[in-house]
């Protein structure tokens, strides 16, 4: 239960598609041009690149398609990359080098390369004025009260995670007096805004908005302390009454903060002034390449994967 003063990583989401030639992998391998070879060679090149980029950058990828049967040289393969760095000015040159590696893999395998640019996000510009306003409203409203059933459920979930990992996570987040929460599963405290001058590892489209207007990112307790994001434990808690109470608390906090911003001109001006100071002379320019298409096919594919009731 707090508001964040952290920035975030800028990110590019890009798919690299290779097209080659099929052939019998045992009978006529010399006739084939493997798209999977190209994907693997590109990945190797990128992994060597890691030594020569800034320490705070992150590169992750998956191979979405890599062929069918092992005895057929695959003529189509596709990888999906996320490339991150604290500032877009740091990210862009890394992306340019990755594109060269991708082109080199195509040359080595005599395959054709298509680069499909999916999305790109800026880093978050935090705002202490609004962060303090949010925490003030949290305290006026009061955090959720957990039932015995919810506390027991959280304890059961929390028992699956090592306490030292939990403590390391709390220290990394700079939670004040982390030892206080060693045996706590659900947060009830409301903490002053944290993270000034730091950069979180993740990325968000909130970042782009924050370059245009004063913005805040805050969180309410909907997960067991120490459980990792994007995990089954997070889903289990967020989908329970714990998550519902957290959501209502967040909605009330947003409403209260919004009312104050609407009715207090001096507060709005203070937030705008801080926003300008944090941006300095930097301006927002779209990170999307000219002429990039909206990835509707990808959206349709994802929709087909959603269970229908």
SSE blueprint:
Elements: E1 2-4, E2 10-19, H1 35-49, E3 58-65, E4 76-85, H2 88-109, E5 112-121, H3 128-141, H4 148-158, H5 163-172, H6 206-210, E6 217-219, H7 232-238, H8 241-263, H9 265-279, H10 296-305
Antiparallel strand pairs: 1-6, 2-4, 2-5, 3-4
Helix pairs in contact: 1-2, 3-8
Give the overall silhouette: globular
Residue fraction in strands: 5-15%
**Low-pLDDT segments:** none
Structure summary, number of beta strands: 6
Percent range of helical residues: 40-55%
Q: Please, how many helices?
A: 10
**What is the count of structural domains?**
2
Largest sheet: 4 strands, antiparallel
- Supply the helix-strand structural class: alpha+beta
Question: How are the strands of the biggest sheet laid out side by side?
Answer: 3-4-2-5
Distance between the termini: 34 Å
Kindly report the average pLDDT value: 92
What is the oligomer described by this structure?
A: single chain
Output the radius of gyration: 24 Å
Describe the structure in brief:
The chain has 309 residues and is of the alpha+beta class.
Protein described:
With 309 residues, the protein is α+β, with helices and mostly antiparallel strands. The protein folds into two domains: 124 residues, Alpha-Beta Plaits, CATH 3.30.70.360; 156 residues, no CATH class. It has ten helices and six strands, in the order ββαββαβααααβαααα. It has a four-stranded antiparallel β-sheet. Helix 1 packs antiparallel against helix 2 and helix 3 packs across helix 8. The two termini are 34 Å apart. The mean pLDDT is 92.
């Amino acid at each position: 239960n707090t508001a964040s003063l952290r920035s975030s990583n800028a990110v590019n989401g890009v798919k690299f598609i290779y097209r080659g030639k099929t052939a019998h992998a045992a009978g006529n391998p010399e006739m084939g041009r493997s798209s999977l070879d190209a994907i693997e060679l590109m990945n190797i090149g990128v992994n060597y690149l890691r030594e020569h980029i800034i320490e705070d950058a992150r590169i992750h990828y998956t191979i979405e398609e890599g062929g069918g049967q092992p005895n057929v040289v695959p003529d189509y393969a596709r990888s999906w990359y996320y490339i991150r760095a604290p500032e877009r000015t740091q990210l862009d040159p890394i992306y340019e080098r990755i594109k060269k590696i991708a082109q080199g893999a195509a040359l080595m395998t005599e395959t054709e390369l298509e680069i499909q640019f999916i999305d790109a996000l800026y880093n978050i510009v935090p705002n202490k004025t609004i962060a303090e306003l949010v925490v003030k409203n949290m305290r006026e409203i009061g955090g959720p009260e957990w039932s015995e059933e919810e506390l027991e459920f959280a304890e059961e979930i929390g028992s699956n995670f090592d306490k030292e990992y939990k403590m390391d996570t709390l220290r990394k987040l700079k939670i004040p007096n982390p030892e206080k929460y060693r045996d706590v599963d659900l947060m009830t405290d409301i903490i002053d805004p944290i993270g000034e001058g730091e950069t979180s590892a993740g990325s968000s489209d909130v970042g782009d908005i924050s370059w245009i207007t004063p913005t805040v990112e805050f969180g309410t307790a909907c997960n067991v302390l120490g459980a990792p994001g994007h995990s089954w434990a997070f889903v289990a808690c967020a989908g329970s009454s714990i998550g519902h109470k957290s959501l209502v608390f967040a909605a009330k906090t947003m409403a209260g903060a919004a009312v104050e911003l609407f009715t207090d001109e001096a507060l709005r001006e203070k937030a705008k002034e801080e926003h300008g100071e944090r941006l300095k002379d930097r301006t927002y320019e779209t990170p999307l390449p000219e002429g990039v298409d909206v990835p509707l096919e990808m959206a349709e594919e994802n929709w087909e994967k959603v269970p229908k009731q």
